[in-house]
Amino acid sequence: MYDDVELYDKFRFRRHDILTIVDELRYNLEYPDTRQGSLPATLQVIVALRMYATGCFQNLVIRSSASTSQPHPEPSTV
User: Fold this and answer.
1) Is 66 helix (H, G, I), strand (E, B) or coil?
2) For the chain, which has fewer Cβ within 10 Å, the N-terminal or C-terminal residue?
3) Is residue 78, in this structure, part of any structural domain at all?
4) Does residue 29 belong to any structural domain of this protein?
5) What's the superkingdom here (predicted)?
6) Looking at the domain assignment, is residue 50 inside a domain?
7) Is there a contact between 11 and 18 (Cβ–Cβ < 8 Å)?
């Protein structure tokens, strides 16, 4: 986990504010079933905030959120 300074440096929000955002959005972000591959609301918010803070998705967010990955397309069989 990040300490408060690191958290603010990476996401531009304080811990309390991030948790408030998660609480506000949780109903819209989480599914009632445990679908394979679905991300918890907290992780979805953290990934979005990191993207907004840096302006970059793949290079920065994926590295700092090891439990997320971008789907790889199936190889074509031409």
Assistant:
1) coil
2) C
3) no
4) yes
5) Eukaryota
6) yes
7) yes
